[in-house]
Amino acid sequence: MKLREISITILVFLTVIFPLSFVIFTYISLQSIKHSEEIPKSKCHILVIGKTENNNFLNNVYKGANSVSDRYDAVVELHVPASKAEESSLSSLFEYASFVNADGIIAYINENSEKLLPPVKSDGSPIPVVTVGTFDQEIEQISFIGNNYSESGRLLARTAIEEWQNGMNFFVINSAGKNPNYSNLMNTLSVTLRNARLTPVIFESSLSENQESLSKELLYENAPPAVIICLTEDDSIRTSQIASDPNYNSKNKIISFGENETISTYLNKGIIHTVISVDQENTGARAMKEIFDYKKNKFANSYVYAGLQIKKGEKKK
């Protein structure tokens, strides 16, 4: 009896279940092939990368790049460590770009950055790199997007002139040394101020010497309010730190050239009055244009001016 039941089961499997399974499998396979034929070509993958300290800047660059992504049929990914504990070197981020076979990179370069090997795709072709932040001629890049320092000097001067009133002191802090870009900035800054018949006290020493000299000017008893132009991010931060002194005049107006996370915090607290920096969202949009112009024409502009933006801080209560 049992033998007969087993035989019937085998017969049913061979005549019904197996053919039915084959039909279902064939149908699924055909649907898979049809579906794969309908998938459009992969979108171009663009990475925005940098270090934690540049997170705020790169978030805005990402917004600008992402805002034009549909124009280039691209997907933009922001890849910045969330904290110092998760920090990765730029070399590691370039390696990651190669690993994911990225089609382009927008990278924030800090001063004294490590030596970077050109990133390549799996087929050995180079990945086009656009840099922002600091120009480093040792890095293989198709474009650098940054400041027009002459125009920056004029805008800094005009902004300071608008804030200055009779009786106020006027200081310019610059620890950039012999950087030729800052020489151009100082030239146009000085000429614009001279045309307005304003002559600031200029500190052009090391960061610590500048801070010591400025502290003496700002913190003596009954010191008048001052307009203070800071030409480097470090100058802006050190000057803002003086504001914690009880003798500091809250009517001082610090104007920062450049922005980072710390400067944004001081701006939001009202310690820094104005920040003038490269237009970060436009930087992202221009970087996308350079990458896709290069992919199409094998040519890109080596230096691109992205424009400037002005941010005002919160008014102190």
Q: How would you describe this protein?
A:
This protein is α/β, with parallel strands linked by helices and 317 residues long. It is 44% helix and 19% strand. The protein is built from 9 helices and 12 strands. It has a 6-stranded parallel β-sheet, sandwiched between helices. A 6-stranded mixed β-sheet has the order 7-6-8-9-10-12, sandwiched between helices. α8 links the parallel β9 and β10. The longest helix is centred in the N-terminal third of the chain and has 37 residues. The chain is elongated, with a radius of gyration of 29 Å. About 7% of the residues have low confidence.
Number of helices: 9
Strand content: 15-25%
Q: Report low-confidence residues grouped into runs of 5 or more.
A: 18-40
The largest sheet, given as strand count, sense and whether it forms a barrel, is:
6 strands, parallel
Total strand segments: 12
Helix-strand pattern: HEHEHEEEHEHEHEHEHEHEE
Helix % is 40-55%
Q: Give the strand order of the largest sheet, numbering strands 1, 2, ... along the chain.
A: 2-1-3-4-5-11
For the termini, the CA-CA separation is: 97 Å
Structural class: alpha/beta
Tell me, rounded to a whole number, the average pLDDT.
84
Q: Which word captures the global form?
A: elongated
Whole-angstrom Rg: 29 Å
Précis, in short:
The chain is α/β, with parallel strands linked by helices and 317 residues long. The protein contains 9 helices and 12 strands.
